[in-house]
Please model this.
Amino acid sequence: MTRPELLGRRVVLRETRVDDVPALRAQLLTPEVAAWWGPPWPEFPFEDDEHHRPFTIRTRDGAIAGLIQSYEEREPAFLHATLDLFVAPPFQRRGLGTDAIRTLVRHLVEDRGHHRITIDPAAANVAAVRCYAAIGFRPVGTLRASWRDPGGIWRDGLLMELIVPPPEGLPGVGGPPSLG
Model:
């Protein structure tokens, strides 16, 4: 099921359109975002992958606040989705990223049938790791030298997952996710 917009408490997620690209590219070039994402690749934010879905994060008043994207593994034996996002500096620390994640996770679980969602922030991105943990994502392990920063240095990532609903007795999985 595809919805034209996903409504959160603070954000509206809309499948990214060509007219969103200039604002998103400009946000990606800000030092705060570029430190984690690097420069935009030629086709940004689109990819030639049928399982990739970029959504523009908009405030309730319509301002473009960033990008959140999902990649879905649809093979039934391995069904899960992966998220990635950035929030532009003027919109950071306002709960918009948290709401965007909760909104997209809800869609992936309720509409797309996923029970497991992963995210892999840079291990050094403490603010992102705290945000994801507060939502219910749990660390799975360190991805050694998993991404090259804009300066060309290989950095570690942290693989985190959210299982909805968390199975009883699954080691390392806390209480229910805070998707509310």
